[in-house]
Structure formats: structure tokens, C-alpha cells
Amino acid sequence: MALDSKVPDGPLAEKWDKHKFDLKLVNPANKRKYTVIVVGTGLAGGAAAASLGELGYNVLNFCIQDSSRRAHSIAAQGGINAAKNYPNDGDSIWRLFYDTVKGGDYRSREANVYRLAQVSNNIIDQCVAQGVPFARDYGGLLDNRSFGGAQVSRTFYARGQTGQQLLLGAYSSLMRQVEAGTVKMFTRHEMLDLVIQDGHARGIVTRDLVTGEVKSYAADAVAIATGGYGNVFYLSTNAKNSNGTAAWRCYKRGAFFANPCFTQIHPTCIPVSGDYQSKLTLMSESLRNDGRVWVTKKKGDKRSPTQIPENERDYYLEERYPSFGNLVPRDVASRNAKDVCDDGRGVGDTGLAVYLDFADAISRLGEHTIREKYGNLFDMYQRITDENPYKVPMRIYPAVHYTMGGLWVDYNLESTIPGLFVLGEANFSDHGANRLGASALMQGLADGYFVIPYTIGDYLATNGVSGASPDDAEFKAVEEEVNAGIDKLRSIKGKRTPTELHRELGLKVWEYIGMSRKEAGLKKALKEIPALKEEFWSDLKIPDDKDNLNKHLEFAGRLADYFELAELMAVDARDRKESCGGHFRDESQTEEGEAKRDDENFTHVSAWEYKGEGKKPQLNKEPLVFENVELTQRSYK
Amino acid sequence: MQPLFKVVWSSVGKKFIMALSGLAMVVFLVEHVVGNLLLYSTDPDPYNKYGHFLVSLGSVLIVVEYIFVAILLFHAYSGITIALGSNKARPIGYYKVGNASGDASRKTFSSKTMIWTGILTFVFIVIHLKTFKFGAYYASHVGGEEIRDLHTLVWEVFRSPAYVLFYVITIFLLGFHLRHGFWSAFQSLGVNHPRYSPFIYCLGILIAIAVAAGFIGIPVWIYFTGA
Amino acid sequence: MDNMTLNLKVWRQKDASSSGKMVDYKLDAVSQHMSFLEMLDVLNEKLIKDGEDPVEFDNDCREGICGTCSLVINGVAHGPWNGTATCQLHMREYKHGDTIAIEPWRAAAFPIIKDLVVDRSAMDRIMQAGGYVSMNAGGAPDANGLPIAKHFAEDAMDAASCIGCGACIASCPNASASLFTAAKISQLALLPQGAPERQRRALAMVEQMDAEGFGDCSNHAECEATCPKEISISHIARMKREYFKAALISKV
User: Fold this and answer.
1) pTM score, two decimals?
2) Chains that contact C by 3+ CB pairs under 8 Å?
């Protein structure tokens, strides 16, 4: 199938304005005749549901948490980018666009990224008007800080809790619409399938997580904003309940899945401490401004860090990348940490960690200054590890943090299924092969507040009221499939818990489709993951109760999808025989061991099409055309 | 628009009344304890003259008395409502009740027993009025005028060990009531500022100690010296 | 220590309509490096393998910001560490042979769904009553068009850091929701964006809080002491000022 990105003609800077004019409108009086389902209440979903409610549509909004305020967007620490140029340091929409395309290693769609940069300014205005308490300077104006991958200060922040504050802003708008009656909120509801009628997305089937009731909801359009699939690795910085199920089930109903192998590994996380570990905690990237990364020169050196003399330390980032030093982009920092640990020079009990040392910064700036800058992060580190980072170096290790891949969408954020829109991390659109810091919040809110309200209106105006009802045969059929799926999980009655199996899957995905991927490893993944999947379907043990709160039943359903998703990741990683951004193929590196793109063969989006159980997915390519930026090899030496 | 009744009996309004009435009674208590210091004198005249002065205010005193009765009833009623509401808001209690660490908490013996120290004080006030205000009438003559000799009555009553014990215990617990009640009233009125709050908190403790010590000292002194 | 044995006493309740009770579990091989929730994960793995029902407890981000986790541990909401949600409490707090009582948030307005999981939708309804600025996407003026003094912005941020976990309610001897409600009223009262609706907001949110069946505030300040974000009761005082002003002079 030929993928039509629907990118409008004309100069880059005018595309969105022109497109907005070309989009059809729904008359204000007619909006209440339409129902839109929004799944997810994070920055993208919450903002979309609130904005659509404000416009007057009937919105049905679903989330798995007990409140729409708990979506995982809340955990973002650092900030949100915008091209406001308040510091007068040379920023512009064009520069934000350029940095984002380059940061994504030229694997994103120019027009989408430009639009993102354009609306970034509206986002800051919108959030301030909602009462988001961004950091300010003494004159009362907004403060900015700098972030990786940019030479300007364009990041707005609210202490180390920017994601929380932005989400609570969206949540407050959402609560206002719930009160106004335009949005109906369904908490503790999990979307388990998509219903298609006459080729259009017309509703979803959910399970009420408290009563176990499986039920259909019909609408005129469906928007999925269910986040990324980082938990396929089991250990990630994602929340425990973050999952890829909604997106995956859309894929199995015909939505293409784009670039599934593009995952971001964040270099500064607190390392794993034992087998019981349930998740990983991120330490903000900003720490690398003052911390120096090092390991021992000698293999297996188990002395305590303070006993290791200066000349026996290897400050490998400073040595290899003299101009960027400890501030190389996330993917480069992560890969180098893995390399030194693979070399047997990792630190700590497990040998899977490197030091991030603040001793120099403390002696230069004083402990007080460091405490002011990073106090809350140091406290969090100490709470988790019981080590005082003012005295001994932090131990850090990379961890999965974000997934750039996701459901394929066109310029309107519409998937390959008409009427199915995909927003935020769940889609693939704006970050290419690597996302820059402080851009995830920007994209989620851009999609929700400023893109979907226009594009979904065009779809509704074009297609009219669908008249779909949960009693239609299509809905009943999907409901039956969902029920059968739940019963199948319950009927296995084996010996292994979902957590055990998930942990095992995670180790394989991390090993073979993690920070570096090679042909042999990917081949192995494609053999071992299906074998483990077999084991899952024959030896799973979960509590049986389906008419009650049963989190392990939920986990099992999500895990079943992860096995399939992991396989597709391996297929995609194997197909993309180049290194780009977070996707590093061992076979494609420069002589110095850096990622090497193959623009001739891989300047495209890989959109995978589901072909049925046990069949190979089909690859569809959307060529990426760069009319405004020149493709160059990244270098941080 | 929310009607007056609703606003006044909202959770915030109720505490406003409680705070104002509480502070008014603190003022009364301070006045009362200062006046009572005259009882330390074995000469009955100064105290009796003070009592007579109050009685001589006539209708003014009666109005003030009614106001204080109303204040007391308001205070008691809102206190009881809050306590009952508390039980209703948590019908099943915790298996184990602990205290948070750190120094932010103001949950103390005082704060947890407000309803009980309050009820005890109410009972005390009834008995107290019966014993003294509506108690035995002794006459005294000062400057040719007959005035009530309350001094003698007080000295007589405080010879009973049971009464003194009851008095001392109740006032001691009233001290705890004041210790939480005083700063709490300011908080309920919306007065909380880093510049003043520590001062108000300490003042509450001082007032509680001063009022309790002032009241307790009298029967104890009389009991041990006046026998 | 990597090999602690703990005696757990956990509230078990099948569903909203059943009655529950404290049940004893002995858990071996607990490592002091585990988080508290990881210790419960280990318990659950064991229960599932033994064919028993695992203990249901709410949790999500496990880094102290989503506000989903909600346990009363030995009588204290979120356990013994100051400014720390349950998910960030670590087992090195405990020693071999300790007994730990684990209970759900208890309040009439927080009905128990199962075991340690409660329904906190009452807090959403308080927000719906007025915890927002009425503005639609698209119409906002330039973000720097309205300077806000730094100390107001900082105070507002202190209040806004509320994670909505409900520990204030769980730990309050009266099960009052004052700190939660006040945090939002106070945040928006401190910012000019909240000014046009401040009177309506104060009256409506307090009205909803009362309607949900939360208790009254007796100024125990146990809420501040157990709040994972250490939000001060000075925000409750501000809520009261807002309420008095609204009640006295507004027509809303």
C-alpha cells in the first residue's frame, strides 16, 4: 500500500496555515452531534479530550489509572522546549525545527517537525494561562535553561517537575470539561480492542478493571494517546502500568506500526540493584553539566572509588569526545557506557554501572552551589541507593526511556485506518531516530491542544455522523474476541507468573535489541522470543478471578502483546541495516566506532503492516524527503 | 449563590465560629484568672468588692453573660459536630495508629483530646456555676453596704479535697485544651505567616500554662493554708 | 542485609461489598535494597505460586510523582520517611524480624475496592468543582505578557506540587481533605490567572469537599507531616481567607 503522508504543498513555513484553511470545519451547532473517543489522559490525550470538549464535541475519555491526573507524562522532569527566544540568544522556529530534525538523525518528517516548532510557542502561552507555575526570574518573567542537542536556552521548566505541572494543567482543563458535561471520564478502564465498521474506526472495547465488565463504546472517531512501549524491556523508566496494548491491538486491526526499533536509551539512570528490581529511575540529563563520567582503567578493579588514584581512572567521554566531553547526546553516552562495562571495567557490585563524579564540581563551586542546582536529585539518589553523592560518585547506567517508534500517522495524525488518530508518544511522527531532551512534552501538548482539534474536525465534517452503536454486530464480534482472549489467558493454569516471564523477555530484548544490535543477535532474538512466547502460552499462571480487580490478569494481557511487539522490533531492527540515532547496528559504524547512517537506502519510514497470526508482517516505506535541511553525519569529537 | 446557613455551617465556616468563640473565651479566662488572684488575699474585701463591681454593672453584665453562654453553646455545638463528623468520615479506624516523623505535625495529646477536654470543661462550668454563682449566699458589709461574700464561699468550698481534686484535674486538662486551641484558632481564621506563626504557637503554650497555673494555684493554696 | 524475615499484617478484603480483616504473612529473603513495593511484589509472586490471591495495591510510576501508591504503614500514611511516597521507601528502614502493618487509606469518601486499593474519585470531583482556570485552548495571551513576582510563583509551585495521593486525608484524624483542596485553591489564588474565578472557586471546591463526606480540619497538621511533597498547612490558612472573602463579599 502506498503511504500518503498528506503533507500539504507550498513553502515549509506556510504549510500548516494553508492546511488549516483547507481543512473542513464542523458548524458549532453541529459539534455536539459527534462523539469522539479519546484513549489516554496524558499530555496528548488529556489535552485532546479537553480541547475537543471545549469545542463542543461529546468526548468519551478513557484511562487505566484511578484518576486522569496520573498518566505517566507526570514523571517528566526536565522541561519543555519552545522557540520563544525570550533570552534573545538567537532562537527561532526555524532553529528549533532544525535542531529537532538533526537530533532525530534525519529520520523524521520535515513538515511535522516544523509544525511542532511553530505551535511550541502557543503551548507555553496556553500553559501559563492555565496557571502552570513555570520558573520565573526576579523581574517576574519566565526563566529558561539549556538542554542537550541545542546551543540556545529554550527550555521552560517548573523545578524538576515540569511534566507534572503541564499534566496537571491539562487535567484541570479536562476536569472543567467533565464538569461542563462535554467529556465523560472512564477511569480504571483498559482499551482492549478497536472496532472497525465499513473500514472506519468506530469504537473500542474496554474492560472495566474493577468489575471486569467487557463493554463496547461507539463513536464517530477514535483518538489513541496511550504512550510508548518502553516496558517491553521490563525494566525501564516507564511507570509499571505503562503499556503498548492499545496501540498494538490497533496494529492488529490494520494500523501500520512505524519504526518499532527506534527506542531511546537514557544514559543517566540509577543502576539495577537486584533480581527483584521492578523499574528504573531516571536522574535528569542536566547532571552531566557538572558530573564527570569515569570507570577504572584496570578490569575488575573492586576498590572503592575514593581509593582509586587519578591516573588509574578512565574519563572515557572526555577522552574520546574532547569538544563535547560529558555532554555528548544521549545515544552516544549510553553506548559508550555499555562498551566500557562490556570490557569488564564497569563499577559497583554488578559491574553494570559507571561513575558520575561531582568531586571536581564540588571543589570548584562548593557543595552549596551543587546542592542548590541538583539538591532534589541528590536526595532522590540517596533515598534509593543509601549512598551520599556529595561524598562518593553516583553510579549510573543507561536505561530505556522513550520509544520514538509508534503507530504510523499522516500529517493529520490519522493512522492507516480512517477515523483512527494517534497522538503523542504512541505515534511515530516527530522525533525520528532520537528524541531531544524536553521535546516529548512539547509534542504531546502540540498534538492534543493544537493539531487534533483541527484535523479531527476535517475528518468528521467529511464523513458525517456515523450512527455506530455498541449493539452493532461488529462490536459484538470484537467483544466476543476480547472475552475469548481473557479466558484463554485464564485457562493456561501453568506455573510461571507474568512478572517472571516479562523479566525474561526484557533481558532478551535488552540483550539483542538494546543499545547495539547485530545481525546474529537479532536472528537469535527472532528465535528465542517466539520460543518464550510459546512458554508463556503454555505455562502462565495468574489469579483466575476475571470479575474483580486482578492486576496480574491485566499484566498477562499486556505481556502477550509485548512478545509480538518485541518480535516486530527485531524484524524492523534487522531490516534497517544502518545506524541512526538510538538505533545502532554494529555492522554500520565509522572507523572510530560511531553510528553511520545509510541515507541512500534508509531515508524512509518503515511502516509495518499486520498480515495475520503467524504471517510475516509486510514492510511499507514512506520515503522521507528533505527539501529544507541538508543531511550530514553527526560528529561530537 | 450559596445561602448564609450553608456558608456558616460549611467546614470552613464552622471552624470560623469555633475559633472566634474560642478566642472570646480565652479573653474571658484571662480576665477571670486575673480577677481570681485577689483570692490569694486572706482579706475577703478586695475580692468581694471586685465581685460586687461586676454585679453592679447590672444589665450590662447580664447581656455579657448571655453572650458568653451563647458563645459557649456555639463552641460546644460546633465541637461536637466536628467530632461526630470525624467518626462519620472514618467509620472504620486503623488497626494501628502511628505518628508521622519530623516536626511538621501538630498532632499531640492536646489536639487529639479536644472533644473530651471540651466536654469535661463544659461539665465543670455547669458545676462551677452551681457551686459559686448560684451557691450559698453569705453577706459581707463593706463601707456600710451589704455585698455578697463570695470569698468565704470559695474558701469554704476549697476545703473539700474532692472538689479541689476535681477542680485541679479539670483545669489541668483545660490547659491542654488551650494549648492546641489558641494557635489553632488563628489557623482557622486564616492567620498563618512564617513571621508570626511561631510566636502565636508559643504564646498559646504560655497562655495555657499561665491560665492553668493561675487557676490551679488558688484552690491548692487555699486547701493547704486555709484549713 | 539481604536475608531479612518480616512479619506482615496486611488488610485483605475481596471487594467493596465484602468485609475485610488483617491477615498475617511471613516473608523470607527480603533484601534491604528493595523498595517497599518491591517487597510486596515478592510477596505476591509467592502468593500466586502458592495458588493464593495476590495482595492488590495501587502503584504506577514508582518514583514518587504520580500519586498512585497509597499505603498506611505501621499507622503512618506512606510510612516512616519524611517527604517520601510509599514507592520510594526502602527496606533498609526495617530489620530482621520486624512486624509491619499495612492498611489502605481509610475514609468514608474513599471506599475500598479490593485489599489495599481504594476509590479516590472524590478528589477528582473536588477538582471538577473549580480546580481550574476557565480558558479554552487557543486564546491565551503571550506568556510573558503578565509578569508574576518570583516569590508568588514559588509559593504557587509549592502548592502545585501536590501529587493528589490522598495521604493528607488518610493521615488526618478527622479524614479531612483540607490540605488537598487548599493546595489547588491556594495555587490559583497566588497567580493572577486564577483571580477572575477565585471567589467562585473557593466556595465551590469547599462545598464539594464537604459534600463528599470528608471530615473537618482540626489543625492537627498531620497532613503536612505525611505529605510526600511536604505541602504546608499555610495553604489551608490561605484557603480559609479566600473562603471568608468570598462568603462575605461575593455574590457567587
Assistant:
1) 0.97
2) A, B
